[in-house]
Specification:
The complex is a heterodimer of chains A (about 240) and B (about 180). By secondary structure, chain A is mainly α. Chain A has one domain. Chain A contains 7 helices and no strands. The longest helix of chain A is centred in the last third of the chain and has 46 residues, at about 145-190. Chain A is globular. Classes of the chains: A mainly alpha (about 240), B mainly alpha (about 180).
C-alpha cells in the first residue's frame, strides 16, 4: 500500500519518512510558486495562471475576506504559506505509495498551531498594548455579576483551548483518515487471504467502502488545510479588531 | 503495514506526544517556505497583479478617452450639420429673394419697354396722321378746285350729266390714287 517508514512509527529519534515528506513539500511548493510567479506576464501562461489562482484564493478568498481593510496584505504570506504547506502535506495521504499525511504525526500540528498562537497574540498586543488581554477576555455589554463566570470561560476558550483545538483538529482528522484508509486496506488484504470463497467475496464490499472513504479523506485533506488557514485568519482578525468585538 | 498498526497499538505510543525531531523539521521547513514566500513569491505575484491592474486601468482610461473623443467628434458633426442646414436655408431664402427681385426687375423692364413701344407707336401714328392731314388738306383743296372747275365746265343743269361728271371725277380720282399707289 505505501512505502515503508524509514524508522518505525512513533520512534523517538532518527530521520523518518514524515520528515522527508515535510522537506519534500517545501521543495514542491517553493518550486511550483517560484516557477509560476517568475515570469509575471500580464497575460499569464497555464502555469502562471494556476499559481495566480492558487495565490489569489488565499489572498482574496481568505485574507481579504476575513481580515479585510488596508492591512490584510501583511498577513497574506503567513496564510498563504500555511495553506499550501498543510495542503501538500495532507494530500500526501491521498497519493499512492506515499500515503502519509505529515500532520497525522502530531508534532507538526503543534508547531503550526503554536506559530499561529504566538502570532495572533503578538498582533493583539502590538495593536492594543497590554489592554489587549482585557479586551480579549472581558466581553462588553455583559452584566457585571456574570463577569466572574464569563471571564474565566473567555480565558480558557481563547488562550488555552484555542491552540489545542486548532492543532488537534488538523492532527486528528489526518490521523483518523490515515487509519481508516489503512484499516480498510488491511481489511481487504485479510479478507482476500481467507479460504472461504464467500468471505473472500466480501472484500469487494470493503473495497467499495475503502474507495468511498478514500474520496472523503481526499476532500477532508483539502478542507482541513482550508479550515486551519481560515481559523488563523479569524484569530488574526480578532486580535486586530479586539476593541470592536 | 499490519505490523505497524499492531506495533503502534502494542507499544502503547501516545499519538498526542510529539516527536521533537519532527517538530523541528516542520518548524524549519515552514520557516524556509515562509522566507521564500515573503521574499519572492508574494512580491512577484503582487507585482504582476499591480502591473495587470495598471494595464487594465490604463486600457480603460484609453477607452474612455477614445469614447470622449468620439462623442466630441459626433457633437462637432452634429453642429456642422446644423450649421450646414442653416446655411442651406439661408442660401435658399436668398435665392428666393433674388429670384423675386429679378422677376420684379424684368417685369418693370418689360413694362417700361412696352410703354416705350406704345409711346413710339403713338408718336408714329400721330406723325402719320399729321402727314395725312397735311397732304389731305392740300389735296382736298386741289380736288375741290378741280371738281369745281369740272362742274363749272359742264352743264350744271343736267343732273345726269353732273352725275356722270362726278362719277368720272371719282373714277379719275381712283385712277389717280391707283397711280399714286403705284
Amino acid at each position: 500500500m505505501h512505502l515503508p517508514a524509514i524508522v518505525p512509527w512513533g520512534a523517538a529519534d532518527g530521520f523518518s519518512k514524515q520528515m522527508l515528506l515535510v522537506i519534500l513539500s517545501v521543495v514542491i511548493i517553493a518550486t511550483f510558486f517560484l516557477l509560476a510567479a517568475r515570469k509575471g506576464q500580464l497575460v499569464p501562461g497555464k502555469m502562471q495562471f494556476a499559481g495566480e489562482a492558487a495565490y489569489g484564493f488565499v489572498r482574496n478568498g481568505i485574507a481579504k475576506d476575513i481580515i479585510g481593510g488596508k492591512d490584510f496584505m501583511k498577513y497574506v504570506p503567513l496564510l498563504f504559506t500555511l495553506f499550501f504547506f498543510i495542503l501538500v502535506n495532507n494530500i500526501y495521504g491521498a497519493i499512492p505509495l506515499i500515503q502519509l499525511p505529515s500532520f497525522s504525526h502530531v508534532g507538526g500540528a503543534y508547531v503550526l498551531a503554536g506559530i499561529v498562537y504566538v502570532t495572533w497574540i503578538a498582533i493583539g498586543v502590538k495593536k492594543n498594548g497590554l489592554k489587549y488581554f482585557k479586551l480579549a477576555t472581558v466581553p462588553t455589554g455583559v452584566p457585571v455579576y456574570i463577569l466572574p463566570i464569563v471571564i474565566p470561560i473567555e480565558i480558557i476558550s481563547n488562550f488555552l483551548v484555542r491552540p489545542v483545538t486548532h492543532s488537534l483538529r488538523l492532527f486528528a482528522t489526518m490521523l483518523a483518515g490515515h487509519l481508516i484508509v489503512m484499516i480498510a486496506g488491511s481489511g481487504i488484504e485479510f479478507l482476500v487471504m481467507q479460504e472461504n470463497i464467500l468471505l473472500k467475496g466480501t472484500s469487494v464490499l470493503v473495497l467499495g467502502g475503502a474507495i468511498a472513504m478514500y474520496m472523503l479523506e481526499a476532500l477532508i485533506m483539502a478542507l482541513q488545510a482550508y479550515v486551519f488557514t481560515l481559523l488563523t485568519a479569524i484569530y488574526i482578525e480578532g486580535a486586530l479588531h479586539a476593541d470592536s468585538h | 503495514m499490519n505490523q505497524l498498526i499492531i506495533s503502534a497499538a502494542t507499544e502503547g505510543t501516545n499519538p498526542l506526544v510529539p516527536n521533537p525531531w519532527e517538530m523541528l523539521v516542520v518548524f524549519a521547513g515552514f520557516a524556509v517556505l515562509m522566507f521564500i514566500v515573503v521574499k519572492y513569491v508574494v512580491p512577484m505575484f503582487e507585482k504582476t497583479f499591480a502591473e495587470r491592474a495598471e494595464a487594465i486601468e490604463g486600457g480603460i482610461a484609453k477607452a474612455e478617452k477614445a469614447q470622449a473623443e468620439a462623442s466630441a467628434a459626433l457633437e462637432e458633426y452634429k453642429q456642422q450639420l446644423t450649421d450646414a442646414r442653416a446655411e442651406a436655408n439661408r442660401i435658399r431664402e436668398e435665392a428666393r429673394a433674388e429670384g423675386a427681385q429679378i422677376l420684379a426687375d424684368l417685369k418693370e423692364k418689360a413694362a417700361v419697354e412696352s410703354a416705350r413701344i406704345t409711346a413710339q407707336a403713338h408718336a408714329a401714328i400721330q406723325s402719320e396722321r399729321q402727314a395725312a392731314v397735311v397732304s389731305l388738306r392740300t389735296e382736298v383743296g386741289t380736288l375741290a378746285t378741280t371738281l369745281a372747275g369740272r362742274i363749272v365746265g359742264e352743264s350744271l343743269e343736267d343732273d345726269a350729266r353732273s352725275a356722270r361728271v362726278v362719277d368720272r371725277f371719282l373714277a379719275d380720282l381712283e385712277n389717280q390714287n391707283a397711280g399714286a399707289a403705284k
